[in-house]
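Here is an idea for our session: we take a single protein and study its fold together. Which protein we use is up to you, so please pick one and set it down. Once you have written the record down, we can walk along the chain together:
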Amino acid sequence: MKHSWWHRCLSHIRQAPDLAGLHTLCCSICRQLKIDHFLVLGGQLTNPAEAGLSALSGLPDDWWSLLCRPERFQRDPTLKHALQSHLPLFWDDLPQSLEDEGRDFIADAGTHGLVAGLTIPVHGPAGLFGVLTLANGSDHPQPEKSLQQALPRACLVAGYLVDGLLRCSDEQAQPPATVPLTGREKDCLLWTAKGKTSWEISSILHIGERTVIYHLNNVLRKLGAANRQQAVARACALGLLTPEFSLDRAVSAPVDTGER
């Protein structure tokens, strides 16, 4: 492994000015490692029942919007593994205790074009927790082999990427002025991220269904999104919407780490 690559990565991560810059850097690292997609999660688990995670997604929009739903996120077997282990995990090598959920997870990932993945846990002081996930699509010529080859370098940069994510998330307190969503548009988008239909959102917010559709169409236009799932993904990436990643149920499930 060339030290120049390692030092360049660390320097760029530390100098990333914001989440958009860090996202561009992650895309560049993935290209160098010959990886299609990435996801970086990070947060403090001092109180797991109320914990939230910041996220930087380079996953397909439809798959990411599905993972953003709290009930789905809490059942993610790769996250459950990461919460209980320091060991990297290839998706096709889930521990026996997570086989049932793992099969469903891998099958769903496959329907969204992902055929191989690698999840690297990050644990630090004062309850710091994070994850670097790398994944390849069905068009990748060597989806499994490239992940195996990327593992050493990915393990080296994982902690720094999580640290960079948390730093940029803290600094980016306000949403970009270039995408001014109204309060009602944000409300509709938030409930969309939770999997609610237009009719359900209208009942929750006590407004007409047509009004909900009107607000969501405005969101699509402002974000340049083709559909609601893509709008949710882009809003999360821009910091306009923070997914409510509750870990209270995820941490309750024991994971077999192979240790006896």
In short: Residues 28 and 34 are 10 Å apart (CA to CA). The first strand starts at residue 37 and ends at 44.
